[in-house]
Every structure is written in C-alpha cells, then in structure tokens.
Design goal:
The protein has 3 domains: 53 residues, Structural Genomics Hypothetical 15.5 Kd Protein In mrcA-pckA Intergenic Region, Chain A, CATH 3.10.290.10; 82 residues, 2-Layer Sandwich (Alpha-Beta Plaits); 74 residues, Alpha-Beta Plaits. The chain is 20% helix and 28% strand. Helix 1 packs across helix 2. The structure holds uracil (URA).
Length: 226
Amino acid sequence: MRLDKFLVECGLGSRKEVKEIISNGEITVNGEVTIINKQNIDEASDEIRFQDEILTYKKYRYYIMNKKAGYITATEDFKERTVMELLPDWVIKKDLAPVGRLDKDTEGLLLFTNDGKLNHKLLSPKSHVDKTYYVEVENDLRTEDLISLENGVTIDDYFTMPAQAKKIEDKKLLLTIREGKFHQVKKMLEAVGNKVLYLKRISFGKLKLNNLELGEVKEVSLEDIV
Ligand code: URA
C-alpha cells in the first residue's frame, strides 16, 4: 500500500495533510526517515512511526456513540444535523456509516463502522440482534400491556416478534426487541394505548452503553460486537 494512503487510513489526516507530514520528514519506515509519499509499504510487517508513535492500520473500524437527541441518523442531510457531526476529530470518518437508525429524538447506543458486510448482516431481518430500550411513557403501564408487548402487537399490519418488557416504575420500562421496524418502540407502545415520552437505547447485541456519557464516542473491536 502507498505510504500516503496508509497514513490517511490510520487517521493521520487528509491526503494533502499527510503529504506535508511526509515531506517534512516526520515519518519513519523501519527506523528510516522517508520523504516519498508514493513509497510502497507493507502495512502488515513494516513499522511506521509518526512522532515516535507506531501507527497501526485497521481495515475495519468500529465505534459506539451515546447519541444525543436533535440529530438524525444519516451520513448527510441538507437540512438537519446528523450523527456524523457528533463524531470527534480522532474518529476516522472514511467510509464510516451508522448501523441502523435511531430517531432524531432518541438517545443512546449507535454503532458506526466502515465494514459494510457487518453493517448489512446486523441489519438483516434474519439476524435478530437484541436491542434494549429504556422507555418512559405517558400513562401507567398495566400488566396486560406488558403481556401484549411481550407476545406481539400489530403495528402497520405487522405482528411484532416476541419481546421482553420489564416494568421499572409505573411509567418506565425496559423493552428488548429482536427486530428493527421503523419507529418500532413508539408504535408498539401506541398499540397498547400509550405514548413514548423519552427513549434511549441501552444495548445492541453484545454492546452495552454502560457509563458512556451523552454525546461520547468510544472505539470498540469486532469481538465486542459479535
Ligand atoms: N424505536 C423507535 O420508535 N425509535 C427509535 O429511535 C428506535 C426504536
């Protein structure tokens, strides 16, 4: 792989920026300074350093975010602010996309990756990834509502798959669903005569939000996801 491409993919900067870094003599390849940006390197075996830091190439990158409300889940939009704007500078944005979608007013765990195959696999209707939501609702939750949510309700002519509904307080519950229909949680609560006032995703498969602050982003590994 070309040295400049490698540096871009390590997140050191844009192609223009890394060319400058190289021509300033700030990069060493196996201990030797190089100023040739077209130099070919072997990303698996060569040791590339920038300011004494060894750079490691990751073909696929995975990050989780505790999404804030007010941002839409999209890579770009003409009108609305997108979740991409919440990604800090250190995140390598090249080919990065969110996995699935949280509504504009929903908070919580959102995964991002440049691994298109994994993205597709996790979203496939066959994959049934468990997603747990913390939900606050308008009206007190009745036992029969919880039973209906667990057994399935009809939303837009579709009968939802078995779910888990755990009441925390009269107007608060944890809902775990294994599919991801459009506005599914809100529609499921509507189907039992209630209304979602606050929604936060707290887990997605093996991934947990834990103590990630609102708006914070963390890099994770493939093993954390599958
Ligand atoms: N279900 C919803 O209704 N909204 C979300 O953002 C996620 C799940």
